[in-house]
Amino acid sequence: MKRNKIIIGTRGSKLALWQAEWVKSELIKIDPSLHIELNRIKTTGDKIIDVPLANVGGKGLFVKEIEEALLQCTADIAVHSMKDVPTEFPEGLHLSVICKREDPRDAFLTRIHDNTFQIPDFNSLPEGAIIGTSSLRRSCQLLNIRPDLKIAQLRGNLDTRIRKLDEKQYDAIILAVAGVTRLGWTNRIADILSSAISLPAIGQGAIGIECRADDTFINHLISKLNDEESALCVRAERAFLKKLEGGCQVPIAAHARIEQGSRDKAQIAHTAGSGPRTSKSGILVMDGLVGSISGDRIIREHAEGTVEDFESIGIELATALLAKGANRILKEVYGTSIGKIDVP
Questions:
Q1: Measured over all CA atoms, what is the biggest interatomic distance in the chain, rounded to whole angstroms?
Q2: What mean pLDDT is reported for the chain?
Q3: Residue 81 to residue 84: CA distance in whole angstroms
Q4: Domains of the chain
Q5: Angle CA 6–8–9, to nearest 5
Q6: Among 46, 76, 84, 342, which one carries the catalytic annotation?
Q7: 84 flagged as catalytic
Q8: Which residue has the higher pLDDT, 330 or 219?
Q9: Residue 252 burial by Cβ neighbours in a 10 Å radius (0-12, 13-18, 19+)
Q10: pLDDT digits 0-9 by tens, 42-65
Q11: Does residue 249 have a pLDDT over 80?
Q12: Is 95 helix (H, G, I), strand (E, B) or coil?
């Protein structure tokens, strides 16, 4: 049955609101008669502002309360940054849509003086430079390349992080290109880090839409926002993460992309919430890694195959890493950095 009123559950940060407003505008393009409201919800991750996220136990720090709103019908859809979304969903909810992905890479930001970046790129960082990041994934990769760097925790919204940089609390900060771009700060990006320097987070740059699995009207409406190539790649990365039993705050990284090749065109049957529908040809190419917190050990692997095997490729890549000792690294990470503080 058609409904005219839809409630979007979202975090209250500027980036989260940008994403929710973007989804709202896209849905109104589909059906101008829709009345769409935003339900701003403060999540556990938003409440904990003075502790590194890696030291907070539990998963779903930025989605738990929003999912509760879906289950209580105080929201009809939830708009998430895919890198924050756990691989398991509460009963009755599912990931229905993955929107077209923005650049998944990491951005290098530094101060500007006389219209010139004081440090033009990552390779120009001086000895012992202070780098601001709250991500173990980023810090372990940077320290692996440059063990002399000093990693300092960086929390807060984008404006706050850039202000701290300009106040000289850091020599440079590392942020997701997608978030910086969406909020109009592209002019502050001095360098975009290659995947050889910083392999992205699972799902980074993609917006996901979660909803109740049995809400036929909503599932049909939002399905028009699904981007098949982005969905294939992000779901492959999530299969990789699920096999490793990792969360978004551990040093795990993966990036999948589709490259044209000689493979036959893939056709995947689609049922709501079970996976993307695709007519994509080519091969799905994927890189993944697991690293120690100190960056002294990084295990990296590569996998590829036909696009219809997107989930298997992610699982096989994770299995290869585990066979090379990734499980030992993850046990150390969970034992030393995860779970020190209980999530309320």
A1: 63
A2: 89
A3: 6
A4: 5-103+202-336 (3.40.190.10), 106-193 (3.40.190.10)
A5: 145
A6: 84
A7: yes
A8: 219
A9: buried
A10: 877 666 655 555 555 555 777 999
A11: no
A12: strand
